[in-house]
Each structure stands twice: as C-alpha cells, then as structure tokens.
Amino acid sequence: MSDQDNQENKDFAQVLAEFEQEAPATSEGPAVGEKVSGHILSIGEESVFVDLGTKSEGTIPVAELKDAEGNVTVNVGDTIEATVTGTNPESGAIELRKKAGGKGKKAAEVVPEIRQAFESGLPLEGTVTGLNKGGAEVQVYGMRAFCPLSQLDLRYVADPQQYVGQKLTFKVARLEEGNRGGRGPNIVLSRRALLEEEQQTRATETREKLQIGAILKGRVTSLTTYGAFIDLGGIEGMLHVSEIGHARTSHPQDVLAIGEEVEVQVIKIEKGKDEKRPERISLSRRSLERDPWRDAAERFTEGTVVTGRVMRLESFGAFVEIGPGIEGLVHISEIGAGRRLNHARDAVQLGQDVPVKVLGVDTAKRRISLSISAAQGGGGGGRGDRDYDDYRDRDRNRDRDREEETAGARSGGGSPSGSGFGSLGDFFNKSSKRSR
User: Considering 180, 195, 210, which residue would you say is the last residue of a domain?
Assistant: First the structure.
C-alpha cells in the first residue's frame, strides 16, 4: 500500500470519527407519539419508506396507505404526516402509523395497538353501531367501545341517531383494563378531542388573515333570532341580522341555513371574555352587496306609483318596502284619504301589499316619502319628515344596543338553540314588540 493510500485511509477514518461524534447531537430521532412529516422515498410490497430528515428513515405499513379497492394512494415524493410508534430493533428504522388497529386482526393483536394509540395519541377508526344512555357504542376493529355524547362533536348533538352507521375517527380518551371479565378493556373514545386539535390548527391559519376589512368564506354553524354564527376556520364570528343584507330580515333562518357557505367581511374585532374565544368578531354580508340606495333616485322618481309591502306600523305612519333594502314612510296623514287616524294599523296591516306614490327621495339621508292616498287619486297632508328622522335614529340606536348585547352571548355561555337565551331572549322579544 502506498503512502498516498495510507494518508487517504487516515483522512477517511478521521472524518468518520468526527461524524460519529457530531451525530448524537443532530440525529436524535423523534419520540414515540410525536407527529412527524417527511417525503416518501420508495414504496415496497409491505412498507413505505419515508425521509424524515433524521439519521434513520421512517417506515409505514403500505396497507395503511391503500384505498377500499386496494390501490396505493401515495406516490414517491409525496409529503406524508404520521405518528411515531417505535423503532425497529433490527434495522433501526423509525416505525410510523397513520392510524391504529387494522381489519382482520384478532383481539389479542388489536388490544396492544389500542393501548399504544392511547399512550401515543394516535387516532383510530371506529363504526358507530348504536346509542345507549349518555353516548354511542362504537366498534373498534371488533372491540366494543363507548363515546360519551358530549365527545361526539364540538357542539351539543341534538340528534345523535345521525351518527349511527358512520365510520368516524376517534382518540382513545381512557383505557381501563381488567374490568370486563376477560372480554378486554373498557375503551372510552373522544371524537371531539381530534376536532378541537383540527380547529386550533385552522384557527392559527385564520388569525393570520384576520383583520378589519378582510373578506373571508365561512360556514353557518347556528342561527338565532338576532343573527348567525359563522365558522371562519376554527374561529367563529357573529353575523348580526342587520348585516345579513340590505333587505330587512325578520329572522336569519328566512335567508340562511345551517351548513351553508357564505362570504362575509370582517367589520369589527374586539377582545373576548372567554379564553377559548379570545376575540369577538363582527361580520357583514351586507357590505359586500351593492347598495340599493345608489340607484333609488333613478328608480323611484317623484310621482312614480309602485306597489310595496307594509313592514312596520307606528303611531305616525307605516313603513313600506318598495324594493329590496328600500323602505319609505307613508305618514299617517297620507294613509286614510282624509280620515283622521290614531294609528297606522287603523288603515293597513303588516304584510299587506299597497299601492304608493313617491312624494320625494333623499338619497343622502336614505329617506323616501310615500303616499297611499295620492296613489289612489286623493290628496294628503305633510310628509312627516321629523317623525321619520326621530324613528330612524331610535331604530339605529336599538340595533346598535342589540348587537353589543348579543355579540357577547356566545362567549357568555349562551345556547344558540331555540329561543333559549333566558332573560336575554326575553329582552329581545320585548324589544321586537316595542318596534312594531
């Protein structure tokens, strides 16, 4: 062997020694139960090999990455997320799993995996087979488990029957062994824990986009008499009934449905009172619609006769909607064709369609004066401008107060179901009656 070869071998040995000294500080593998992400290196008959950026590769059973028809659902180069379940003592590879358990396994094989899922926080699949007092019975790879009703979803489940027959993903919340006379452990599951984890991840992403003026897509989660709660992605916002659209809405359920996807704009962000909801977000769909008052002067010129619908009745007159989002006031002197009335209800009724004549349009003040008498060929008195202004001011103040009171109902623990807001609901019912 030449002197040059000896020198190269010496240099290689030195480099290898240095590498081995540095390796422990930089190549410690992830701990059992830790969630990791990596790129798929190769796909074998039994295992998929994953580059985790550590000294050892990760392996995951190929069976976990097949669909119902037996086709592999991933490709080389794809990014995959999994949970560490251990280290192979022979190869040193990091063992990974997407889910715990598997079809066709005996109880003796499944129980250790369920125990591992419990200790490592791995999700597992189960089929809801029935309901009992307080919860749902779930089959987890041939073993009977229990999921409390409160853990089936993020919110109270009014109709748990809808879950029967569904295959869902759960976390093992509790595992009690030796209490079933040899039939295996008591297994308590939680679907809510997984959903809350997903919600927190989505909330972090949503907060990065959350600012006043931002336009976001969300989904209606619940409806109340005063508005709708919208899931923006792990965070809920409040869409007040007055912000649903320009057209007056008596109840959100007349316009929206639970589960419907809507586009909304953030109009206010305030600090919340609940740690789980650190912000109170006010939303608007109305701000994204074209303002109907922009064309009001052109559409409803003075002297035009149109048919409108009576929306509200007051002692000084009736408010009549003559177009989506456009209401005008028929002063009491313009209703009775010369008859003296004590209240508008003496001549017209809520919901009644009536012909009206446009007496004047003030787009700056968003005000239209109408006349029923003139539309029928008669004369009329004054237009009631002061009454109109006083009412509009009172109406706006009431809506503002209502929004401030009700926006905090969610963080205060109120229930969105039914009228179900106790004294708060009574307050709104009384306010509604006073406005008629």
Answer: 195
